[in-house]
Amino acid sequence: FGGADAIVSHALGNGMRVKGHALIWHGSVPSWVNGLSSTDLRLAFESHIRSVAEHFRGRVYAWDVVNEAVADDGSGLRDTVFRQKLGDQYIADAFRIARQADPQALLFYNDYGGEGLNQKANRIYELVQNLRAQGVPIDGVGLQMHITASNPPSDANVGSNMRRLAALGLAVNISEMDVRVRDLPAQTKLETQKSVYRSIVAVCVAEPRCDGITFWG
Q1: Per-residue pLDDT tens over the stretch 163-177
Q2: Euclidean distance between CA atoms 62 and 47, whole angstroms
Q3: What digits encode the pLDDT tens for the residues 191-205?
Q4: Phi and psi torsions of 20, nearest 5°
């Protein structure tokens, strides 16, 4: 935990809060995980969530518990090693284990490509709606917002999506925002990028349950 401890200590020593990212993500598992039996993966899955969340208890105010579990086309859940060996319920299980490990931390589901209103956004909505209906301890949704300056989601659709998530009792974060400009003419890149950032931030400011923005890139 040395490197992460240094980051968290620096933040807390300078009046900042830390949101942890991410406890379960198929894109950041070592290769040996794929060779585990279902039983051994369950043990490793539970041990990882507990050990990390307990280590930072009281110092990390929120976690992205599960990251990018929905397929890109919105057809269903992504076919990850966790789903293959632990079943669809691995998402609910992850949130329950995280809540036990740190009862005070806010717990988020985080994903990309569902910031506005489209099939993937609908599938993310259905996922978190079902989690809430099951009594799973989920506090919010992170909308990553990796977008292009030439074709961003509309402000109206982003706002509508935030409001329907908020209606479930969830907070919303813009969690990894970057605005890509490589396909724009050089003379318009920065002005267009600035306009898109300003517009999306304004949507968040206008929505009472949009309570955080993190910029990437």
Answers
A1: 999 999 999 999 999
A2: 19
A3: 999 999 999 999 999
A4: -80, 140
